[in-house]
Amino acid sequence: MALTHKVNKVLYVRLPVWKIYPGGVIYIADFIHKLRPGVEQRILDFALIPASRRRRVLRALLEEFKPDVVAFSWRNMQTFGPHPENEALDVVMNFDYSPNPLKRLKSAFSALGIIYDYAASRINNFAFMKLVRKQLPAATVVVGGTAASIFGQHVIKKCPSNSIVVIGEGEPTMLSVVDGDESLEGHYYTKDEQGRVVHHSGQENFELENLTAPNFEYIESIFPGFREYLDQEIGVHTKRGCPFQCHFCLYNKIEGSRQRYRDPVEIVKEIETLNKVYGVEKIWFTDAQFCSTRPSMNHVERILDQMIARNVKVRWAGYLRLNFLNQEIAKKMLLSGLDSIDLSFTGTQENIDRLTLGYKLKQQMEAFNLFKEAGHTDQKIKLYMPLNAPGETEEALLTNINKINELYTLFGRDNVLPFIFFIGVQPGTPIEDKLLREGYLKRGYNPLTLNPFTIKRLLYNPEPLGRMIGRAYLKALDKSNADFDYVGRATMKLLEEELLARQSG
């Protein structure tokens, strides 16, 4: 699809999601402003507007601003994904394993509610795009964000004519759109005036040194809701690209496998402004992993050095891979305000290899000791554990629990948070390929039809292990509510007791 004119006005619409800092939209708007300052831009965040008013607000802004391009940012689309009010794992566990018939019935209605919410959200989001097309027939519709990157081929089919769906990072494509280029940069789908869809493949080659610290004064001027996010955790991007291919993860499909880095000085300028000008106290590094490879550790150390030198007073966290951690970097992490150590965790090398997580358990356990020796105090240790991983066994689970007990001893029980997450199926991942090969999924299936119940049937542990985990989890929910214990710790304790009893019996 060829664009024949330069763009004067761009409206960014952040599609409905719970209140999460819209960092991706802010980076793109800032990037376009710095290179094309003559382009007028606005940001409309539906997370800050009641559902009943969204169409009215959008209609009024289209009428007043009359943008040439309306760029929608879409975060969540798949039914078993994050949900602001209902945890899919809780719902499925109650439906399958609760001894209370009323809880099982309630969970069934909750599941239907989740499925309905996501289906309705998809319908409403496409309706917003159609509203744009009806009110501004000549405007170009652009759709980006995580959901568009994962499900682009499904999204473009339902977009109105003269639409572009961007896969992966949006800066190069948006700049091409703004410039009216006949051939756009990046990876994207187009739908022309006649409704014909074309796939334009491309590699992620945007150099992140071009992504400087945002001009937040400008962002405030185009985004009235900006200050409403300053009392929560703010996302900051330091790199893109992931060289690993974990069994269930899409990061390297979205961002490419080549790691590309922002300038540490610009990163810390961004954090410093957020902290010292706007009072932000918490930062989340939004990378696939804040540290992972040996070159990324060097980059991390430069960021930490800048944070310490500039005396930035924030608490920060991000996903960590500790293969190449040393004591000096561990000390700098703690000194610069590390709030929690967030990482994938499973207690056997066999499961790590089966999930293609790409690290050594021995290295990970040694890294924990480095944090302790470096001066760990109250920083939380958050362990993301896929208990529905294919191939899980009772023996492996007990080994996993023993490793967690080691961490309790090292850091204190209250500082260790085992988090049971629910592996899903994403297009283009090794786990999807496995399910297709084994016949659990049919070629040509629609991934948007998957829900918490179908995922459980596809990926859950064989009985009796599945039932054991489910019932322990439900007991832990009740116990946690009564004793104010963390549900993951309570689940692990209950599982440990049952597994040891089975061994002795």
Quick structural overview:
With 505 residues, the chain is an alpha/beta fold. It is built from 18 helices and 15 strands.
Structural class: alpha/beta
Distance between the termini: 69 Å
Task: Report the CATH topology name of the largest domain.
Answer: Rossmann fold
Per DSSP, the total helix count is 18
Uncertain spans, ≥5 residues at pLDDT below 50? Answer: none
User: Mean pLDDT, rounded to whole units?
Assistant: 91
Most strands sheet: 7 strands, mixed
Can you tell me the CATH class of the largest domain? Answer: Alpha Beta
- CATH H-tier superfamily of the largest domain: Response regulator
Cα gyration radius (Å): 24 Å
Known CATH architecture of the largest domain: 3-Layer(aba) Sandwich
The coarse silhouette is globular
Strand content: 5-15%
Instruction: Give the proportion of residues in helices.
Output: 40-55%
Strand order of the largest sheet: 2-1-3-4-5-6-7
Number of domains: 3
Number of strands: 15
